[in-house]
Each structure stands twice: as structure tokens, then as C-alpha cells.
Amino acid sequence: MKNFEERLERLEELGEAIRKPDIPLDDALKAFEEGIKLARTLEKDLEKVESRIEILMNGPEEKPEARPELGLFDDED
To answer: Is the pTM above the cut of 0.70?
Structure first.
């Protein structure tokens, strides 16, 4: 699989090709189909990056303060 930048460049090429007035309909449809597939993979990659950034920005979740479990401080009567 190509990296993100290569796929984005290919998507831009497809967009330019589709805008040409003399492109045959079948070729335009194929380019559109490939472009949609590329756009979806790029969107998924961006979502993964966004998720990683949120984790990095928010840090790890804070755990509730641990309580002693040994019973050393329990009242014994």
C-alpha cells in the first residue's frame, strides 16, 4: 500500500483528470470510483492520527486513588 502522501497525490491527479472537459464518461467514472476509495482510506488514516493526537494531548487516564486493601486501618472491636 502506498503511503498517505502518495495516495493524496493520486487523489489530486484523479480530481484534475475528472475536471477535463474531454474525458470520456467511462474514464471519468473509473477515476471517480478510484478517488472515492482513496478518499475513504485517507479519511480512516486521518481519524487514526486524530485519535493518537487526542491521547497525547489528554495524557493517560487518571486512576482513582488506591485505597489500602490489607485492613490495617480497619477498626477491630
So the answer is: no
d(CA 43, CA 1) in angstroms, rounded, equals 15
**Helix runs in 1-77, H state only:** 4-19, 25-58
Residue 35: which of 6, 5, 3, 12 has the closest Cα? 12
Confidence tier at 50 by pLDDT (50, 70, 90): very high
Contact 32/18 with Cβ under 8 angstroms? yes
* Average pLDDT score over the chain: 87
CA dihedral sign of residues 23, 24, 26, 29: positive
All 3 cell numbers of residue 77?
472491636
DSSP state of 70: S
